């Protein structure tokens, strides 16, 4: 749940609010809130034109003013293609500031502006619920990170004090508070690994209890290969657990999320705009793959002939063939039915794709297409 927003808020209060990711992005165009005391007579279109000329991209006030005007106007004037270009450039700059040495305050302003732009731009994308069997529900908890269905029930991760949750098939629930988890992965049919991009090491639920996989960096992914347990850390290094030794240095700056499918590990760095890295476990090699028109990949699913990716910036589900040729996109960014906001997890379950949106806690489910 977000914070309560008053019908009016001054630009100073809006711009200088606490940069807490749990509340920073709550206000969007169409919410019926007016931002007052802006003190800038230029139109949103005029500010955008200056940005595209390269004059104001790092100007915090210009970013705040443009965001405020979008919230107030709830529409765009001028060619839509211009706004799409601006949004993509701001998104690229957001991603760049996720890399080491980036400016967090500037990055969060970029991201808030992208969300406001996307909210308006993507209204032009048609949604046909009937064609994909679209259904939705809310995942219990605040700002969820991942969910996983297993043989005995469902796991999910939230941003609450009790942040790891399990519900068995009879509806019984259990909850734990362990570190700052962000990712769930099955280990065989019984065990579950909980990774993180914030907390060092990882935790594993096995034989009815938790154990800790110690490491001097966050462990994003834990998996098994040829009956040995391996893990991938935030710095892009894959290790054998016992005895501890380096399996592969994937040569990436950082890893925010990762998945293992077959003989490959997919490394997702939110700072690597329009790219993902794939580690071949058999060859112990890596390669970067361009995934345009997707901008920032948060998660993916690999099926027999298809990859399905989700985009942090645009929402939606993007479909590629096995050679990474883009084929189709469905759904759009936003809060309404059939809309996705900052998707963080995509899973395949019984012929359906399930996407978790971080910003509003919604699970959106469609037929695999």
Tell me what you see in this structure.
The strands form seven sheets. This protein has a seven-stranded antiparallel beta sheet, with no helix packed on it. A four-stranded antiparallel beta sheet has the order 3-27-26-25, with no helix packed on it. Strands 4-5-6-7 form a four-stranded antiparallel beta sheet, with no helix packed on it. Helix 2 (44-52) packs across helix 4, helix 3 packs parallel to helix 5 (104-121) and helix 4 packs antiparallel against helix 5. It has 369 residues and is α+β, with helices and mostly antiparallel strands. The chain has helices spanning 11-15, 44-52, 60-73, 80-96, 104-121, 129-132, and strands spanning 8-10, 34-36, 135-138, 146-150, 153-157, 164-168, 173-176, 183-187, 191-195, 200-206, 209-225, 228-233, 237-240, 245-249, 257-261, 264-268, 275-280, 285-290, 297-302, 306-311, 317-321, 326-330, 332-333, 339-340, 343-349, 352-357, 362-367. It is 18% helix and 39% strand.
């Amino acid at each position: 749940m977000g914070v309560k927003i008053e019908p009016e808020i001054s630009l100073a209060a809006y711009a200088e609010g606490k940069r807490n990711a749990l509340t920073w992005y709550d206000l969007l165009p169409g919410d019926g809130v007016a931002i007052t005391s802006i003190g800038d007579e230029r139109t949103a279109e005029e500010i955008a034109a200056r940005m595209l000329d390269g004059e104001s991209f790092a100007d915090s006030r210009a970013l705040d003013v443009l965001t405020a005007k979008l919230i107030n106007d709830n529409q765009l004037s001028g060619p839509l293609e211009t706004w799409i270009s601006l949004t993509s450039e701001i998104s690229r700059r957001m991603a760049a500031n996720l890399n080491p040495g980036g400016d967090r305050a500037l990055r969060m302003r970029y991201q808030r502006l992208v969300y406001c732009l996307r909210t308006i731009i993507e209204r032009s994308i048609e949604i046909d619920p009937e064609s994909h069997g679209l259904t939705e529900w809310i995942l219990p908890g605040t700002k969820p990170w991942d969910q996983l269905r297993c043989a005995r029930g469902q796991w999910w991760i939230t941003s609450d004090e009790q942040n790891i949750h399990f519900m068995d098939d009879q509806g019984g629930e259990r909850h734990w508070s362990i570190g700052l988890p962000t990712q769930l992965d099955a280990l065989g049919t019984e065990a579950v690994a909980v990774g993180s991009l914030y907390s060092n090491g990882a935790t594993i639920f096995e034989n009815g209890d938790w154990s800790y996989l110690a490491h001097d960096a966050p462990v994003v992914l834990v998996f098994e290969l040829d009956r040995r347990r391996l893990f991938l850390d935030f710095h892009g290094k894959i290790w054998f657990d016992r005895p501890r030794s380096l399996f592969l240095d994937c040569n990436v700056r950082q890893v925010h999320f990762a998945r293992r499918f077959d003989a490959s590990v997919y490394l997702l760095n939110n700072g690597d705009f329009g790219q993902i890295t794939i580690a071949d476990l058999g060859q112990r090699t890596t390669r970067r793959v361009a995934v345009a028109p997707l901008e920032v990949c948060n998660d993916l699913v690999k099926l027999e002939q298809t990859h399905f990716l989700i985009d942090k910036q645009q929402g939606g589900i993007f479909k590629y063939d096995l050679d990474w040729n883009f084929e189709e996109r469905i759904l759009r960014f936003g809060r309404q039915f059939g809309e996705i906001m900052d998707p963080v997890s995509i899973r395949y379950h019984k012929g359906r794709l399930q996407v978790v949106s971080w910003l509003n806690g919604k699970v959106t489910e469609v037929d695999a297409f």
